[in-house]
Amino acid sequence: MELSAYYLKMRMSHAVAIVLSVTSFTLYAQDFPEMVEVKGGSFVMGDESGDKDEKPTHEVQVNTFTIAKTETTVRQWRVFCSATKRTMPESPWFGLKDDHPIVNISWDDAIAYCTWLSTKNKKHYRLPTEAEWEFAARGGIKSKSYPYSGAKAPDSIAWFSSHSNGTMPVAQKLPNELGLYDMTGNVWEWCNDWYEAGYYALKVKDNPQGPQAGKFYTLRGGAWDIGARNSRNTYRNPLSPTSRNHNKGFRVACSD
Question: Does residue 184 share a domain with residue 171?
Fold first, then answer.
């Protein structure tokens, strides 16, 4: 279903509704990602006490960008599917609930969503780079140097293997320093970079984009069925871009 370019903003009880003229339904703000600005800055990427592909630690400079406050939800994905006549992904045993993050999403699927959203909102939506993702997860220039996104331990900020048996509604735990939710836990989040275990040895400082080619892309942040150690801000998880399962989703970023 094609959405018109007409936007009307009004105050609602919980959010500002974005109403678009369509043939049979009305869309609201929660049907699209709410973006948070991440002011540019430098940080030390990686973890010398982590796995081999998290080393060596190196200073990285990231430009200002915006990133979604939450992971892309089932509701937001459903709007995309309705607009593009795309089939919803297979539902896991715990269901596809509107306020939960969408799952069974490949890297290719996430890119298709970014392309559609860019066309609709006239901005360049994309997946975050690994450097942008880690910088945002650490709290950007407001970082308190936590190993998890917003805390020393994940219990207060994340749904992970000790606390859940499926995805949970987004933004139910505490946010990090930037007001971002679920950067740790709930679902793995696709990044835009090809994965290379030894890439950090190159020590690319200015807005690293990752290798120019590869076999796998990188996911970050852990998931509802993943233990705490593999949910750290610095942990890297490589996977084929066509892979889909019940614990992988994404959140969008934007530079425009």
Answer: yes
- 254 Rama class: left (phi>0) / alpha (psi -120 to 50) / beta: beta
Q: Which of 196, 236, 199 is nearest to 214 (CA)?
A: 196
Q: 3-class DSSP state for residue 247?
A: coil
Based on the domain organization, do 120 and 177 belong to the same domain?
yes
Domain extent at residue 19 = 1-31
Residues forming a β-bridge with 194: 217
Query: How, if at all, do strands 7-11 and 41-45 pair?
Result: unpaired
Q: What is the pTM of this model?
A: 0.89
Q: Kindly report, residue by residue over 187-213, the tens digit of the pLDDT.
A: 999 999 999 999 999 999 999 999 999
Tell me which residue of 152, 142, 116 sits closest to 33, measured CA to CA: 116
Give the domain CATH number at 147: 3.90.1580.10
Whether 118 and 1 map to the same domain: the answer is no
